[in-house]
Amino acid sequence: MLSAAAVRRGDRLAADAGLGGPVLMETAGRTAATLLWKVAGPFSARQPVVVLAGGGNNGGDGMVLARWVARWAGPAAVKVFLLAEPGRLRGEAAVQWSLLARAGVPAFALAGEPAPGAQQGPHQHQNPGTGAGAAPVAAEFPEPGAARPPAAGSAGAAGPHTETGPQPAADRPAAGGPPAAAGAGSGVGLAVDPFLDHLEAAVARARVVVDALLGVGVRGAPRPLAARALQVVGAAGVPVFALDLPSGLDTDTGEAAPVVPRATWTATFAAAKWGLVLGQGPERAGQVFVVDIGWPQETGTGVGGTGGEAEAGAPGGGTGGFPSARVLDAAGVAALLPRRPWDAHKGWAGHVVVAGGRPGQVGAAVLAGTAALQAGAGTVTLAVPAPVRTEAAVHRPEIMTWALPATAGGEWDAAAATALAQRERERRGRVVRVIGPGLGQSPGAAACLAAWLGLDRPAARDPAEGASDDDRPADAPHGRPADGAPGTDGEPGARAPEGAAAAGSAADGPVCRPTVLDADGLNLAALLGIDRLRERPGSFPLVLTPHPGEAARLLGWTTARVQAERPRAAVELARRAGAVAVLKGAGTLIAGPGGELYICTRGHPGMASAGMGDALAGIVGAFLAQGLEPLAAALVAVFVHALAGELAAPAEGIPVQATQLIARLPEALDRIRRGSPGSAAALGIPGVAWLRPPLEGDGAPVS
Ligand SMILES: NC(=O)C1=CN([C@@H]2O[C@H](COP(=O)(O)OP(=O)(O)OC[C@H]3O[C@@H](n4cnc5c(N)ncnc54)[C@H](O)[C@@H]3O)[C@@H](O)[C@H]2O)[C@@H](O)CC1
Ligand SMILES: Nc1ncnc2c1ncn2[C@@H]1O[C@H](COP(=O)(O)OP(=O)(O)O)[C@@H](O)[C@H]1O
Ligand SMILES: [K+]
């Protein structure tokens, strides 16, 4: 996931490696043509493609695509509208314009200012700034079926038109019309109004419009001329296939003026761009396909990403726009999944303790616990205020419950902090805490949270923790016996703060454990101050799972700012807390304390329902309990959760309940292990991957 600045840097790295613009453009345009054919083809003179091209490299991509479609289906199957004066084209776009002429592809362009003394009219327009070689545009681009003969001796700025040039498809009569290169153009090199009229007429008859007007080079909202052309396209209601980005969409923020097309498909090159997943990007881009154009590996942006790897050497590096992120995919997540040994026992898979479930919100803790169980935790306990213990216990017989000290009103009592730690110590095995689902924000809950985070006093090593090692095979995950508590490096107490042994000993206070903070756990942490989380003793593993509102409270931002700057917000949460931060919502972001950033593009709006977050917190806990490091646990949990949400929805837009998602967790895990739908292979075009594959129940848009 790249910013515009990162794309430029990637292009430079590619060029340094010998992959120059023309090579990349050819790969981009040809692959996009293949993809277009797959999603919207076949094309013919009766089912033509109209390409709206701009004067930059995005337009160049469109011209490459047009050339290939013409080669496969005959020149009458495609028509190019260049919203620029050909004489002003530079670099690769100029080359592509020249190649279009050679291929006999019908095309229209804007006419330049007439040369002094030249007769007015579309064929007489001389392109300024092109010197002696400037040629009437019309001569280069014959319009199929037009009566006028080709202008003789034309030699354009972009190269001579030669009738004998390679025109593989020109001798193939296009369906429903005369041979493509038989006649001369009747309307190329046009003033603006006739150009737009022709565009309107062509679009009305088109099978699909290819939007190649503006790509990552866009600056601000489309200017008036571009806006008029986009308006024409939008008004026609014909499906739009956008190249790189829907034209005018802000590459970094996803801001979009009203004229920015609502594409049915977008083929984005090298890697996805932030603008496709932020702001209005998702609704403008439609189905997004990531097209590998051959950037060298050093750029770190292979198709589909590999997930689970650091983004070392990736373009962007935080310069301008947002930092780069890796897109989670099934293959990358599969590599991170814990591998259960054949002789595994429940201790191997850890013990998730969910602390929450105040009266009226017991369900939140139940959902987190059930999700933890379904995601593979060896043991799950719901630690709840005593008055609700029975209510918590009735749901799943596999789940234990601990009744903890409560106030008269059934809220958490401050004494519960120590009581919980005591109950944990009575059991062997690796304990992970999921703190927050239904916790409430009572003073007692706040006191417990501070104690569990070790922020009320120095924390100490839990002597019972070491014993749990005996339960595990020698190569068991989580090589850190006490998970970051002081003295875990083999010298018990060696790094313990002064007085820690007394202050935080097993006998008289809570110890710290790998922790997931969610919901009110986060709201209370915000009151403590997010920066204080860095002070937690021993930097024990910590994963925060805020939704945008909770993230705003933690950062002291508005929710709107969090949403507008999601990548920055995620990185900031992780940096300030010194923890792994999962910023939930469409396009969940996972940030590591070292600046790592990942995005999960899976899941769907049907998952916007109560309890989904509780389920996610429980799943993160389950993977911590199974020995994954916190970043890996968060990555796996987010992906599995999203995939289970997809499996639970019969179709796009159908609401899913948390219990339905939780029920599908084992299947989601199995899919990931076996390679889930949405891999590049599933689309059937090597080097092309869905950014977010269609839901299976939705009827795949590809044939
Ligand atoms: N450079 C490379 O290595 C590659 C670039 N590729 C393509 O090149 C595109 C980027 O090309 P460019 O940098 O030439 O930029 P674009 O083609 O995206 O846009 C630049 C053009 O848009 C005009 N423009 C900018 N802002 C505008 C606005 N608000 N209203 C109207 N017109 C506006 C500029 O005057 C210029 O003509 C990518 O999106 C991608 O499609 C691909 O060919 C792959 C390789
Ligand atoms: N539009 C969406 N697309 C993908 N995932 C979504 C979408 N809406 C919600 N989700 C996911 O559902 C979960 C909702 O969590 P949260 O807002 O905390 O819900 P709750 O507090 O009700 O449990 C998150 O994991 C979020 O990423
Ligand atoms: K575009």
UniProtKB/TrEMBL annotation:
<feature type="binding site">
    <location>
        <position position="364"/>
    </location>
    <ligand>
        <name>(6S)-NADPHX</name>
    </ligand>
</feature>
<comment type="function">
    <text>Catalyzes the dehydration of the S-form of NAD(P)HX at the expense of ADP, which is converted to AMP. Together with NAD(P)HX epimerase, which catalyzes the epimerization of the S- and R-forms, the enzyme allows the repair of both epimers of NAD(P)HX, a damaged form of NAD(P)H that is a result of enzymatic or heat-dependent hydration.</text>
</comment>
<feature type="binding site">
    <location>
        <position position="613"/>
    </location>
    <ligand>
        <name>AMP</name>
    </ligand>
</feature>
<keyword id="KW-0456">Lyase</keyword>
<keyword id="KW-0521">NADP</keyword>
<dbReference type="InterPro" id="IPR036652">
    <property type="entry name" value="YjeF_N_dom_sf"/>
</dbReference>
<keyword id="KW-0479">Metal-binding</keyword>
<dbReference type="InterPro" id="IPR000631">
    <property type="entry name" value="CARKD"/>
</dbReference>
<keyword id="KW-0520">NAD</keyword>
<comment type="subunit">
    <text>Homotetramer.</text>
</comment>
<feature type="binding site">
    <location>
        <position position="614"/>
    </location>
    <ligand>
        <name>(6S)-NADPHX</name>
    </ligand>
</feature>
<protein>
    <recommendedName>
        <fullName>Multifunctional fusion protein</fullName>
        <ecNumber>4.2.1.136</ecNumber>
        <ecNumber>5.1.99.6</ecNumber>
    </recommendedName>
</protein>
<comment type="function">
    <text>Catalyzes the epimerization of the S- and R-forms of NAD(P)HX, a damaged form of NAD(P)H that is a result of enzymatic or heat-dependent hydration. This is a prerequisite for the S-specific NAD(P)H-hydrate dehydratase to allow the repair of both epimers of NAD(P)HX.</text>
</comment>
<keyword id="KW-0547">Nucleotide-binding</keyword>
<feature type="binding site">
    <location>
        <position position="211"/>
    </location>
    <ligand>
        <name>K(+)</name>
    </ligand>
</feature>
<feature type="binding site">
    <location>
        <position position="244"/>
    </location>
    <ligand>
        <name>(6S)-NADPHX</name>
    </ligand>
</feature>
<feature type="binding site">
    <location>
        <begin position="57"/>
        <end position="61"/>
    </location>
    <ligand>
        <name>(6S)-NADPHX</name>
    </ligand>
</feature>
<feature type="domain" description="YjeF C-terminal">
    <location>
        <begin position="329"/>
        <end position="672"/>
    </location>
</feature>
<feature type="region of interest" description="Disordered">
    <location>
        <begin position="460"/>
        <end position="508"/>
    </location>
</feature>
<feature type="domain" description="YjeF N-terminal">
    <location>
        <begin position="7"/>
        <end position="301"/>
    </location>
</feature>
<keyword id="KW-0067">ATP-binding</keyword>
<dbReference type="Pfam" id="PF01256">
    <property type="entry name" value="Carb_kinase"/>
</dbReference>
<dbReference type="InterPro" id="IPR004443">
    <property type="entry name" value="YjeF_N_dom"/>
</dbReference>
<feature type="compositionally biased region" description="Low complexity">
    <location>
        <begin position="489"/>
        <end position="508"/>
    </location>
</feature>
<feature type="compositionally biased region" description="Low complexity">
    <location>
        <begin position="133"/>
        <end position="183"/>
    </location>
</feature>
<comment type="similarity">
    <text>Belongs to the NnrD/CARKD family.</text>
</comment>
<dbReference type="InterPro" id="IPR029056">
    <property type="entry name" value="Ribokinase-like"/>
</dbReference>
<feature type="binding site">
    <location>
        <begin position="584"/>
        <end position="588"/>
    </location>
    <ligand>
        <name>AMP</name>
    </ligand>
</feature>
<feature type="binding site">
    <location>
        <begin position="215"/>
        <end position="221"/>
    </location>
    <ligand>
        <name>(6S)-NADPHX</name>
    </ligand>
</feature>
<feature type="compositionally biased region" description="Basic and acidic residues">
    <location>
        <begin position="460"/>
        <end position="481"/>
    </location>
</feature>
<feature type="binding site">
    <location>
        <position position="547"/>
    </location>
    <ligand>
        <name>(6S)-NADPHX</name>
    </ligand>
</feature>
<keyword id="KW-0630">Potassium</keyword>
<feature type="binding site">
    <location>
        <position position="58"/>
    </location>
    <ligand>
        <name>K(+)</name>
    </ligand>
</feature>
<keyword id="KW-0413">Isomerase</keyword>
<feature type="binding site">
    <location>
        <position position="247"/>
    </location>
    <ligand>
        <name>K(+)</name>
    </ligand>
</feature>
<feature type="binding site">
    <location>
        <position position="438"/>
    </location>
    <ligand>
        <name>(6S)-NADPHX</name>
    </ligand>
</feature>
<dbReference type="Pfam" id="PF03853">
    <property type="entry name" value="YjeF_N"/>
</dbReference>
<comment type="similarity">
    <text>In the C-terminal section; belongs to the NnrD/CARKD family.</text>
</comment>
<feature type="region of interest" description="Disordered">
    <location>
        <begin position="111"/>
        <end position="183"/>
    </location>
</feature>
